């Protein structure tokens, strides 16, 4: 939770991430942090203590809220994958396509779509809650709950990540093509231009790996939650395949984000610099000086 929250703070404050990719990733990190906060504040206490009957309604609403943030996190993954595909395939058109207005529209779309799914759970019989007896998050046994569990939480979300993985594969092929192009042009460019292209390629590769790794983690979580959990025999195995792997996948999102973003690591690992950056509305990043030019800052 801490990794996700600190990453969110860095991305909304640091100048490097003030772009479409940065804002979408920040929303994704915020969603992960919100889910983990719900786990910490609600699931952990009621794992130890029985849930009072008077809190049954609150249990349903908390479960409902957790699904809202799950859907925002999942749809952020889709938008991030599309963002990386456009950035690598159409680099000259990227800034015209992913403008601030476009990014705002995507964030609003993700929120509205997730809110529509969230609102369904106000209907009687459409339940998702924390089950103290088995220490797991569970859908209800009513027809509405069963339908939502199979068709939306598993079917729709698995299909969503199949699309994400397909986009990521195409993006990977584009990255390979770009690598060959860079290697072919190395002999025709000077050392500085070649180094600049290599840095850009490495940056795009890290962003791609971040998005792709997140997608794989979520796919594995959905398979465990809906399929493997049906094959286990003990309560502890059920807990591992549902609540534990669900929380771990969102916690892993923060770790993945920090692992593939040196700027975030630099600010989080150096607490003094990180605190300073939160009060500095325009964090400065050094740019390597080209031969014969003055030092620049952006």
TrEMBL record:
<feature type="transmembrane region" description="Helical">
    <location>
        <begin position="21"/>
        <end position="45"/>
    </location>
</feature>
<dbReference type="Pfam" id="PF10328">
    <property type="entry name" value="7TM_GPCR_Srx"/>
</dbReference>
<feature type="transmembrane region" description="Helical">
    <location>
        <begin position="236"/>
        <end position="260"/>
    </location>
</feature>
<keyword id="KW-0472">Membrane</keyword>
<dbReference type="InterPro" id="IPR017452">
    <property type="entry name" value="GPCR_Rhodpsn_7TM"/>
</dbReference>
<feature type="domain" description="G-protein coupled receptors family 1 profile">
    <location>
        <begin position="3"/>
        <end position="117"/>
    </location>
</feature>
<feature type="transmembrane region" description="Helical">
    <location>
        <begin position="98"/>
        <end position="120"/>
    </location>
</feature>
<protein>
    <recommendedName>
        <fullName>G-protein coupled receptors family 1 profile domain-containing protein</fullName>
    </recommendedName>
</protein>
<feature type="transmembrane region" description="Helical">
    <location>
        <begin position="155"/>
        <end position="175"/>
    </location>
</feature>
<keyword id="KW-0812">Transmembrane</keyword>
<feature type="transmembrane region" description="Helical">
    <location>
        <begin position="205"/>
        <end position="230"/>
    </location>
</feature>
<keyword id="KW-1133">Transmembrane helix</keyword>
<dbReference type="InterPro" id="IPR019430">
    <property type="entry name" value="7TM_GPCR_serpentine_rcpt_Srx"/>
</dbReference>
<dbReference type="GO" id="GO:0016020">
    <property type="term" value="C:membrane"/>
</dbReference>
<feature type="transmembrane region" description="Helical">
    <location>
        <begin position="65"/>
        <end position="86"/>
    </location>
</feature>
């Amino acid at each position: 939770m801490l990794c996700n929250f600190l990453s969110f703070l860095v991305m909304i404050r640091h100048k490097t991430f003030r772009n479409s990719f940065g804002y979408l990733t920040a929303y994704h990190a915020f969603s992960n942090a919100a889910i983990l906060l719900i786990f910490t504040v609600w699931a952990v206490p009621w794992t130890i203590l029985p849930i009072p009957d008077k809190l049954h309604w609150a249990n349903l609403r908390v479960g409902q809220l957790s699904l809202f943030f799950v859907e925002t996190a999942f749809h952020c993954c889709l938008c991030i994958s599309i963002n990386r595909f456009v950035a690598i395939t159409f680099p000259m058109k990227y800034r015209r396509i992913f403008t601030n207005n476009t990014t705002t529209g995507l964030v609003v779309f993700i929120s509205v779509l997730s809110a529509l799914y969230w609102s369904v759970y106000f209907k009687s019989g459409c339940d998702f809650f924390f089950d103290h007896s088995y220490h797991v998050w569970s859908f209800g046994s009513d027809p509405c709950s069963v339908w939502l569990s199979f068709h939306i939480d598993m079917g729709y979300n698995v299909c969503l990540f199949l699309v994400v993985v397909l986009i990521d594969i195409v993006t990977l092929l584009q990255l390979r093509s770009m690598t060959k192009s860079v290697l072919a042009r190395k002999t025709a460019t000077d050392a500085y231009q070649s180094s600049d292209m290599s840095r850009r390629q490495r940056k795009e590769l890290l962003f791609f790996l971040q998005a792709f790794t997140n997608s794989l983690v979520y796919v594995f979580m959905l398979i465990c939650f809906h399929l493997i959990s049906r094959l286990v025999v003990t309560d502890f195995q059920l807990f591992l395949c549902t609540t534990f792997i669900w929380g771990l996948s969102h916690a892993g999102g923060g770790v993945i984000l920090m692992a593939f973003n040196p700027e975030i690591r630099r600010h989080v690992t150096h607490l003094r610099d990180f605190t300073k950056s939160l009060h500095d509305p325009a964090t400065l990043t050094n740019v390597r000086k080209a031969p014969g030019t003055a030092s620049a800052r952006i």
